[in-house]
Amino acid sequence: MKTAEQTLSMLQRMQLPMPNFFKKVRRVGMTLTAISGALLVAPAGLPAILTDVAGYLAVAGTVMTVVSQATVSQDVLAVLPDAQAARKVTPEERYE
């Protein structure tokens, strides 16, 4: 029999609370993405190495953000009787 963790859809995973560590990882990823975006659209002629690094930061930040967003707290998985019982969580609850 599959566990609740194995049968949760991506949408359900995104709506459930995430662990505190991954909230911090998500913030770092979003910050890296924002910094890289600012470097890539800077009007001044930046050295080519800096724009290359900005591209790598954008990829790293995006991956960090997406992966951390899909994590689900073990406490929540322990109380889920099955995947269909996943309740919707408000954004305020998810990002506390």
Quick gist of this model?
With 96 residues, the chain is mainly alpha-helical. The chain has one domain (17-94).
Would you write up a description of this structure?
With 96 residues, the chain is mainly α. It has one domain (17-94). 66% of the residues lie in helices and 0% in strands. The chain has 6 helices and no strands. The chain has helices spanning 4-7, 10-15, 20-40, 48-69, 74-79, 91-94. Helix 3 (20-40) packs antiparallel against helix 4. The chain is elongated. The mean pLDDT is 81.
- Describe the global form: elongated
**Total number of beta strands:** 0
Query: What profile does the largest beta sheet have?
Result: none
Which secondary-structure class do the elements indicate? mainly alpha
What is the total number of structural domains?
A: 1
What level of helicity do the residues show? 55-70%
Low-confidence stretches: none
N-to-C terminal Cα separation, in Å? 33 Å
Strand content: under 5%
Mean pLDDT: 81
What is the string of SSEs from the N terminus onward?
Answer: HHHHHH
Number of helices: 6
Radius of gyration: 17 Å
